[in-house]
Predict the 3D structure of the following.
Amino acid sequence: MNLLPELVKSNLHIHTHFSACAAADMIVPNILSQAIKKELKKVALVDHDHDNKNDLLNKINLVKNEVEKFHPQLALIVGAELSAFGINKFGDTLAINRKIDFRLYSTNHYHLDFWEHPAERTARAYAEHTLCILENLINTKRADCIAHPFVGIYLRDILADRTQVTKALSDNELADILELGKKNQVGWELNTKAIFFDPIFAKRLWAIGREVGVKFLVGTDAHHLSEIEEPPVIEQKLKMMLTRA
């Protein structure tokens, strides 16, 4: 567990008010003030690209302009939470992708109406579908990190027990896709919301990921200022969930 004290100094999944799902007070000065107050060393601002209300690069530039005004006392990345919404289906073009400093991808936002679903809506089918999306995404070298990986948290209207998705993944399948990510220098997010939703899988991801030697990154998926927490708090939460029997 000695990796965690260093990992939790960064929060690489924070949404600004440019994400429609974020609170109105998630403006850049508020976010950075909170991050400094909580003694974070590094943050990433990653707004969604799936609302189609603003041009993605324009949103990124607007956030960067706010960052420049603030002169934060911490390392900061402005990127995006991008969408791999099906097998070889992406919300961004390659030309746009290459202009983004930090490319955090979701492959499991199944609650969105444009997201591709497997032919059969079973836990195993969703597990296989997610693996196929991930394999294709990783091989395109588009991604820097995978957000809330594998979990069925967004299948609330489809599966009665959404944790069955990760239970349908074998350890060998998980190790293989993590190996592929490592080969292509793709990180895997320890997303605090996803970990609390599916702690049994979180423990598997952590154990197998460390065995494979993958790069883990921490993100709270913050949509509210209160979700930008100090490193010791995040570390304690992760320790509790990742070591729980």
